[in-house]
Amino acid sequence: MSAEYVWNQCLSFIEDNIQPQAYKTWFEPIIPVKLHDQALSIQVPSKFFYEWLEEHYVKLLRVALRKELGENAKLVYVIKMENADKSTSFTEQIPSKHKSLFAPQEIDVPITGKDPGLKNPFVIPGIRNIKIDAQLNASYTFENFLEGESNRLARSAGQAVANKPGGTSFNPLLIFGNVGLGKTHLLHAIGVDIKEKNADKTILYISAEKFTQQYVESVKNNTRNDFIHFYQLIDVLLIDDVQFLAGKSGTQDVFFHIFNHLHQNGKQVVLTSDKAPVDMQDIEQRLLSRFKWGLSAELSTPDYQTRVAILKNKLYLDGMEMPEEIIDYIAQNIKSNIRELEGAIISLIAQASFNKKEINLELAQHVVDKFVKNTKKEVSIEYIQKMVADYFEMDLVTLQSKTRKRHIVQARQLAMFFAKRYTKASLASIGSQIGKRDHATVLHACRTVENLADTDKQFKKYIEDLSKKFS
Ligand code: ADP
Ligand code: MG
Question: Which residues of 19-172 form beta strands (DSSP E)?
Answer without folding.
Answer: 31-36, 39-44, 74-80, 91-95, 123-124, 131-132
